[in-house]
Give the backbone structure.
Amino acid sequence: MLQVNMESTVRTVFGKGPMRQLRMREITPAILYSGGAEPVPLQLDTAKLFKNLLFIQRRNAVVTLQIEGDSKEKRNVLVQEIQKEPVSGELVHVDFLEIDLQKALKFSVPIEYVGTAKGVDLGGELQVFKDIIHLRGCPLDIPDVIKVDITRLEQGGTGLTYGDLPVPENVEMLEKSGVLCVIVH
């Protein structure tokens, strides 16, 4: 799984007016939720945050959040929600969720089909039914993408099911193994 480092500081101002002033100074307010503990208000440099969020966009990523002014200096988190201004697209607020790297969590992982199927070369049509797989495992054990070689698929063949996908041993697949993912007609 992808890992990214971000720096932040504890936020001491609250309310609509002070939040606007923060955003005018290129600082984005955020909050860190931590399984039942009191949420920690944060503030991050907007340019660096935006760059990091673009890098991890639509990917599973563990963020190591370095918090200046907090008793726990580094926390492993997931980006839970990103709020943007609807017209300009500017960052308004970000929610982080603290995680334990040793506990199993659910993740959606994209499936990437690699190669050209034999059946497609002979005039068939590739039909993709599933392009995401749901997995459970420790965050650092989850792959960024499941790559599947489809070159051996022929027309009218059986296709590939979830059970045919190369899932790492220490990760549990949450899908039914008999569900069809791709086939050539």
